[in-house]
Amino acid sequence: MTKEKELKKMTLTVQGSKKINLYLAGEGTFTIEWGDENPSETFTLVSIDNNNWLNEIGHYKFSHAYKDNSIQIINIVSEKITHLRCDNFVLSSLDISRNAELTHLALCANQLENIDISNNIALKFLHCVDNQLTSLDVSKYFNQIISLNVKKNEALKDIYCEGILAGQLS
Questions:
Q1: Which of 1, 4, 70, 88 has a CA between 20 and 30 Å from the CA of residue 149?
Q2: What sign results for the dihedral spanned by CA atoms 63, 65, 66, 71?
Q3: Domain-wise residue ranges, the chain
Q4: Burial of 140 (0-12, 13-18, 19+ CB in 10 A)
């Protein structure tokens, strides 16, 4: 008897954006429910070179256009997503708590007030400049982080939060 792979779900809430681009990598298949009347789409993920993942756009970019700027809830169900990048649109919330295999996360220039990465123990790269964060001190660049607790994120090697002031890193 073959063991069925456990599917993991991510939820992204987008407000005020007519077009979004998501960059994903990993293994296996995933399905995106874009949150509008369009049908779900299923794709196959590919693994990529971790050193160049922010620059290699072509083979893992997924785009969607909305007819207005209303709130959209995007659900992504996957076997294994290791890389997620969603920059420069109005991402107001993100639930990645069920994606423990996520190693690379880039969320720059959105409207996020918090990011919960406590279950993302494999996370090695976090890029979250230009948000409204209150729980990661980068006040110089729109974030208001006073402390950052990464005790459970033992694999985390790099956090890019420009302008960190005298806060607490634990």
A1: 88
A2: positive
A3: 8-169
A4: exposed
**Which of 47, 48, 53, 50 is closest to 28 using CA atoms?**
47
> Among residues 124, 127, 68, 129, which one has the least CA distance to residue 101?
124
Residues 47, 24: Cα–Cα separation, whole Å? 9
Question: Is the separation of the CB atoms in 9 and 76 below 8 Å?
Answer: yes
Q: 56 is written with which tokens? A: 């290699």
The pTM (predicted TM-score) of the whole model is 0.77
Per-residue pLDDT at 149: 74
Tokens in use for 99? 């994606």
List the beta bridge partners of residue 12. Answer: 74, 94
Q: Which amino acid is at 18?
A: K
